[in-house]
Task: inverse folding
């Protein structure tokens, strides 16, 4: 019967009688196996065959009972150890590599040997009676024996070239299981690999990796190791053998590390991928000196800045390697992290699985090394190998070895990393330096835990150019004092100065109340800037013009940490002209004070609050006092996308409140009514990729974006002219963009429906523009007679019904609109600028409208059409849109910027786009 039914890849055989302990049974099976032409660990191309997972395997019975899961993409088979005696019948010209040693017949290596020597190790398991199994003519048989393996993989190709060598270990360590002082190294590569695999390159790298791993775990437990060039990319290990897609040293290290961790120390990959993938990844980096601990050992001061040339060189960015692990921080803060111990197929998506069991588990092994120390960590690996080789291992086995090496319980450590999610974050709460009678300086640092994960935090004091590192010895303490002694007064004291730990928030690693350490930089246009240890505070001048206030000048400061949290903006400017007195429509007269010439705004997004241990992700709020209006808003955003990393729809919902109160009519923009408004609003939007999603390479450009928005508010009028009333607006749009195969031609179609009632001018739906609240932060557009509102500048903040020939303040009661455009890329700017294209095209807009506020349309069917050019793409780190449209045709020319006839030359500039 089939325990995984309807899946039929796992079968249960009922025995005629129960087996006792030490009993055995012989089962004969016939089966057919054929590798697929699409390589996935196995595969075939021409007469090259990679056989993996090609025969019925026996399920493992362990602490958890029968483990009979089917083979799934995430996770590998969990196999029972045994002896394999395999006779392969192959064509005469095939060259074969396999798990085990060839005891009879010729694997074909000597015939295709390019260099080195062939050491078959045929008698590794003692003399075997070489039974000459008969082979049909044109075929030959090769018989292999492998002991203490849980899988048998093999590969054959007539094109393989062979290089081999003997790795001879110096006599020394004895293990409780058999090892071979001479290990044969076999490399099989393909024609064309001579310069990359050949000339001893792959052979020597395999030997180097073996030597490094032996000093980590102990002597290798098999008589041979084979490294061959498979059809699939990447790499997979099998006992005594790795099938690799490249000869890179990192890959060889990783796969050979797996022959230890997963091959000899056989964990259930499906339940505990972290035990082999995390450890193999950590060891790979360790061998190459790339772990945080090894990098820190080479660095005594802050690492050098990233070297970037050209305009980008102005940006202050992370030092090399310092951005590592930030994807894990982002995953955690987004609330989508899953514990390392999650069963592989239960991860929400493949990339979360990968990120977690490789990167986060690698981080975990680094943390374990910090907790138990270098010597104990080495002792742990050796104990783990010595005790558990050729057995099934699980977290209990690994933890027992770590605890033996450490001499103390580590349940807390494995619990927090394996079964929980969370962040490492420690803060320096206080520091005090005193000179001791012996002349040295003692610095006492109070360290408190802020994050969920406990860690023995290093604390450093920099004196005379050298960091002296102490450690918060009790990793599980919430608060402790660390003392560091230096020969002179320290210039700097900070937690984890060499960035060895996963501490995500390094702003609180120094004692710098109240706002934490700050890096002030010029806000270079179009560049992203970030710092691992400090808040980046980017300063830029701002200037704009308004008719009442004249030239208005000031400065804007934007700050953030890791481009992710505490995104703040603060602006202050002063109007150089006194607007004097202005008489309103109702005949009342008012003057402005100096105070209302001060323009200012502040925004926060994803803020950290002192009482909370984590930033409030998805929350944003702002206050603005601009042009005689006070505006307050708060917005909560939810990311409802089904996937975090995988390609798929991006779905978001927001809910917000907004209040706007005009207080100085002399400044009031000419598209604002003097009413107080309070509003609730909500939007839902989705960006859906269209077309076939390739497994790799660029995602399809074709997209469908849909958006729905609703707002409902109440307005009160001081003058009582328009009366107090409620208002509402609804709109929905769908935008589809389809590209031709060469991606240089695009077709855009937009459908829009909008309706509003009772809205004041600043919130009213417009024929071709976004409303005055949507454009409120645009200083060059908002104020009366602003630079972009001059008669000579036909600027349109494209939006509303999208009738782009029409002036911005053409109000509508409702509209059903279709906007279409065909565009062709005429020129692509060099990539050093980002990716910026110059596009040209033609457009047409058609709408059925209901006019409003004096925007009367003689005929409700409104249309325009024309040609245009745009600059579209990215300039350095920012998306850029600049359009110049020539709407030569308009059904209602009276509502256009320049009037004239239906067919007339006119132009419109916009900084928005629908692509
Ligand atoms: Zn791996």
Result:
């Amino acid at each position: 019967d089939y325990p995984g039914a309807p899946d039929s890849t796992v079968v249960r055989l009922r025995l005629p009688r129960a087996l006792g302990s030490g009993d055995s049974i012989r089962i004969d099976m016939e089966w057919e196996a054929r590798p697929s032409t699409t390589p996935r660990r196995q595969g075939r191309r021409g007469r090259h065959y990679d056989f993996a997972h090609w025969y019925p395997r026996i399920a493992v019975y362990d602490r958890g009972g029968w483990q009979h899961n089917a083979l799934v993409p995430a996770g590998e088979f969990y196999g029972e150890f045994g002896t394999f005696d395999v006779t392969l019948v192959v064509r005469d010209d095939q060259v074969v590599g396999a798990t085990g040693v060839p005891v009879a017949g010729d694997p074909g290596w000597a015939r295709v040997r390019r260099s080195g020597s062939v050491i078959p190790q045929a008698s590794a398991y003692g003399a075997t009676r070489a039974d000459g199994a008969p082979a049909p003519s044109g075929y030959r048989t090769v018989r292999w024996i492998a002991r203490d393996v849980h899988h048998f993989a093999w590969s054959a190709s007539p094109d393989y070239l062979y290089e081999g060598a003997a790795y001879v270990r110096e006599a020394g360590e004895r293990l409780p299981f058999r090892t071979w002082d001479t290990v044969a190294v076999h490399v099989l590569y393909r024609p064309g690999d001579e310069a990359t695999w050949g000339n001893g390159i792959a052979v020597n790298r395999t030997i180097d990796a073996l030597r490094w791993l032996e000093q980590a775990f102990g002597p290798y437990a098999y008589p041979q190791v084979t490294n061959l060039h498979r059809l699939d990319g990447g790499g997979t290990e099998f006992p005594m053998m790795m099938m690799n897609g490249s000869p890179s040293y990192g890959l060889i290290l990783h796969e050979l590390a797996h022959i230890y961790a997963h091959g000899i120390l056989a964990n259930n990959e499906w339940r505990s991928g972290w035990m082999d993938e995390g450890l193999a990844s950590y060891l790979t980096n360790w061998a190459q000196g790339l772990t945080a601990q090894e990098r820190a050992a080479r660095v005594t001061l802050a690492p050098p800045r990233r070297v970037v040339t050209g305009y980008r060189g102005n940006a202050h960015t992370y030092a090399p390697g310092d951005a590592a692990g930030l994807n894990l921080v982002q995953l955690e803060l987004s609330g989508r992290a899953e514990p390392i111990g999650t069963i592989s197929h239960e991860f929400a998506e493949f990339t979360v699985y990968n990120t977690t069991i490789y990167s986060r588990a690698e981080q975990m092994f680094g943390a374990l090394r910090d907790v138990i120390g270098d010597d104990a960590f080495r002792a742990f690996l050796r104990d783990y190998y010595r005790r558990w080789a050729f057995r099934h291992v699980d977290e209990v086995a690994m933890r027992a070895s770590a605890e033996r090496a450490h001499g103390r319980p580590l349940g807390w450590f494995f619990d927090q990393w394996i079964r929980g999610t969370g962040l490492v974050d420690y803060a320096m709460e206080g520091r005090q330096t005193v000179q001791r009678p012996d002349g040295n300086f003692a610095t006492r640092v109070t360290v408190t835990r802020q994050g969920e994960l406990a860690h023995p935090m290093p604390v450093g004091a920099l004196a005379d150019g050298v960091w002296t590192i102490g450690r918060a010895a009790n990793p599980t303490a919430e608060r402790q004092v660390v003392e560091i002694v230096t020969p002179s007064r320290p210039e700097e004291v900070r937690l984890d100065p060499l960035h060895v730990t996963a501490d995500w928030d390094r702003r609180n690693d120094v004692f710098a109340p109240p706002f934490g350490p700050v890096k002030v930089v010029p806000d270079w246009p179009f560049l992203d800037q970030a710092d691992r240890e400090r808040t980046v505070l980017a300063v830029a001048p701002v200037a704009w013009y308004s008719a009442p206030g004249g030239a208005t000048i000031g400065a804007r400061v934007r700050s953030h940490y890791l481009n992710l949290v505490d995104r703040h903006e603060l602006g202050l400017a002063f109007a150089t002209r006194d607007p004097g007195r202005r008489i309103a429509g109702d005949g009342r007269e008012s003057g402005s004070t100096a105070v209302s010439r001060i323009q200012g705004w502040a925004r926060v997004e994803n803020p950290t609050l002192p009482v909370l241990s984590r930033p409030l992700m998805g929350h944003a709020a702002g206050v603005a006092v601009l042009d005689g209006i006070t505006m307050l808003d708060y917005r909560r955003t939810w990311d409802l996308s089904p996937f975090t990393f995988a390609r798929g729809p991006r779905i978001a919902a927001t809910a917000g409140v907004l209040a706007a109160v005009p207080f100085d009519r002399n400044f009031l923009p000419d598209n604002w009514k003097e009413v107080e408004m309070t509003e609730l609003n909500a939007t839902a939007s989705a960006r859906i990729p269209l077309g076939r999603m390739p497994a790799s390479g660029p995602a399809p450009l074709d997209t469908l974006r849909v958006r729905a928005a609703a707002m409902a508010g109440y307005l009160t009028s001081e003058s009582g002219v328009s009366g107090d009333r409620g208002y509402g607006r609804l709109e929905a749009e769908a935008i589809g963009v389809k590209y031709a195969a060469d991606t240089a031609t695009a077709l855009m179609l937009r459908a829009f429906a909008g309706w509003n009632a009772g809205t004041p001018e600043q919130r009213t739906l417009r024929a071709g523009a976004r409303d005055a609240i949507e454009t409120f932060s645009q200083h060059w557009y908002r104020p009366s007679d602003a630079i972009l509102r001059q008669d000579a500048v036909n600027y349109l903040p494209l939006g509303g019904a999208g009738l782009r020939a029409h002036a911005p303040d053409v109000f509508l009661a409702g509209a059903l609109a279709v906007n279409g455009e065909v565009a062709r890329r005429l020129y692509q700017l060099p990539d050093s600028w980002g990716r910026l294209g110059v596009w040209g095209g033609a457009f047409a807009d058609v709408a059925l409208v209901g006019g409003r506020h004096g925007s009367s349309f003689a005929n409700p069917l409104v249309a325009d059409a024309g040609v245009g050019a745009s600059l579209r793409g990215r300039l350095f780190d920012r998306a850029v849109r600049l359009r110049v449209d020539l709407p030569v045709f308009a059904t209602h020319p009276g509502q256009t910027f320049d009037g004239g006839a239906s067919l007339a030359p006119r132009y419109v500039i916009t900084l928005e786009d629908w692509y």
